[in-house]
Amino acid sequence: MCRHLAYLGEPLAPGAVLAEPPYALVHQSWAPRRQRYGTVNADGFGLGWYADGDERPARYRRAGPVWADEAFADLARVVRTRALLAAVRSATAGCAPGEAAAAPFTDGRRLFSHNGALPGWPAAYGPLAATLPAAELMALEARSDSALLWALVQARLQAGAELGEALADTVREAAKYGPARLNLLLTDGSSIAATAWGDTLFHRSGPGVVVASEPYDDAPGWTEVPDRSLLLATPAGITVHPIDSPDA
């Protein structure tokens, strides 16, 4: 599985939401509280963030566990950002290891993460992969289920879909091929889209908006997103919509 988090709001140091809270994402890399599949997220991690005046995000990704990376601790302390997406990885069997397989994935101004798995990967999802042109498959950043899902999302975005539409349509399509777990997280630096499909997802507002696999503290205000839902968030507010089953 994995754990991930996105933030929008006033400038802050990434560590304020990723490291300092008692059950922050760094803590979730070795002791998640709500994770339904897997126990440790030590197969890589990544942080993507936006600097004022530049819509294209920066990324810092590594193949090892986040708790062992001193450079990440410094970066998370001194950088300031109005928007970020971060993830810690528990690799799916059959998926490639390494930094290239760690979220967030990026394209232009967008950052993407997948919390979940495609059981039976890769054989069961060959027909899903075949819906993409061969050139796009050869250009995948990593040989992994998450990279394939990102390519499917990208194809929809490039065809003109909005963030939420691209995620929901990808989830519906991927769910046709097996009991997939498809918690997807996507931001363009000014809004967030996320799906809850097979694992936990929470949100909290004020100050800023946080969307996360699980709460990073026990303070009030966290709201769980129902399974099979699409969340859309901006600093102005959050809406949640059901995702119809692909069999409906």
Automatic annotation (TrEMBL):
Keyword entries, A-Z: Glutamine amidotransferase, Hydrolase
EC number(s) per entry: 3.5.1.118
SUPFAM superfamilies with a match to the protein in the record: N-terminal nucleophile aminohydrolases (Ntn hydrolases)
CDD domains reported for this sequence: YafJ
Domain of life of the organism encoding this protein: Bacteria
Pathway(s) served: Amino-acid biosynthesis; ergothioneine biosynthesis
Hydrolase in keyword set: yes
Catalysis: reaction(s): gamma-L-glutamyl-hercynylcysteine S-oxide + H2O = S-(hercyn-2-yl)-L-cysteine S-oxide + L-glutamate
Pfam families per the UniProt record, alphabetical: GATase_4
Glutamine amidotransferase type-2 domain residues: 2-248
InterPro entries for this protein: EgtC, EgtC-like, EgtC_Actinobacteria, Gamma-glu_amide_hydrolase, GATase_2_dom, Ntn_hydrolases_N
PANTHER family listed in its UniProt record: GAMMA-GLUTAMYL-HERCYNYLCYSTEINE SULFOXIDE HYDROLASE, GLUTAMINE AMIDOTRANSFERASE DUG3-RELATED
NCBIfam families, alphabetized: ergothioneine biosynthesis protein EgtC
General function of this protein: Catalyzes the hydrolysis of the gamma-glutamyl amide bond of hercynyl-gamma-L-glutamyl-L-cysteine sulfoxide to produce hercynylcysteine sulfoxide, a step in the biosynthesis pathway of ergothioneine.
The protein's name in its UniProt record: Gamma-glutamyl-hercynylcysteine sulfoxide hydrolase
